[in-house]
Amino acid sequence: MYYSLPMWLTFSRIAAIPVIAALFWVDGDEWRYVACTIYGIAAATDWLDGYLARVWAQQSKLGRMLDPIADKLLVAAVILLLVAFGRMSHITVVAALIILLREVLVSGLREFLAELRVGLPVSALAKWKTTAQMVALGFLIVSDAKATAFIPSQAIGEVLLWLAAALTLYTGYDYLRIGLKHADDTPVPQQDTKPESGPDVARRRSA
Questions:
Q1: pTM surpassing 0.90?
Q2: What is the pLDDT of residues 57-82, one digit of tens each?
Q3: Torsion angle of alpha carbons 85, 72, 103, 139, nearest 10°?
Q4: Is the distance from CB of 144 to CB of 87 less than 8 angstroms?
């Protein structure tokens, strides 16, 4: 399973991150499009690896763990790069911040619910949110290229990013509501870690 095509597609999404990041430092419009192309291919693997794993019955625990991690790493890296290189307006940084904070929230909820053996399935709106933000980031990567002068790439990217942020707020609240259903004020039993002492312990240790 470690060497299956779906697994390699997941790995490729992570491997694409440093390549895309390096291209941000290279001058020239053509490199903007190279970065966008690599990003687009990497984003497409987010759907393709899961589809192939289901069709070919090659799903694995490692793949289920790495797939959402690879997605979040790619999105977070591109958002930080876009902000650092000024390829989105200051107000749109708020939308990017909402998306990043939501990812942290959902990751924490999944970790909490995993301890209770409760799943947190991905909703249909969450999939639309992912699609909107992926497309938005692609437009923003090439937003400062001269060849896009007649195409409002930055405007399209920012509108889609705000749409993704709105869906992020809704789905984040929905996930939080599910998490709160399984949280109460019941204290979690703590294991007594105080070292034992006394003659009985001494006899057990010498036995």
A1: no
A2: 776 666 677 778 888 899 999 999 99
A3: 40
A4: yes
CA distance 77 to 97: 13
φ, ψ for residue 195 (rounded to 5)?
Answer: -65, 135
Enumerate domains of the chain plus CATH numbers.
Answer: 5-182 (1.20.120.1760)
87, 140 Cβ separation under 8 angstroms: yes
What are the tens digits of pLDDT across the range 8-44? 888 889 999 999 999 999 988 899 999 999 999 999 8
Residues 77, 21 contacting (CB under 8 angstroms): yes
- Record the tokens describing residue 203, joined without a space: 């006899």
Closest by Cα among 67, 68, 72 to 9: 67
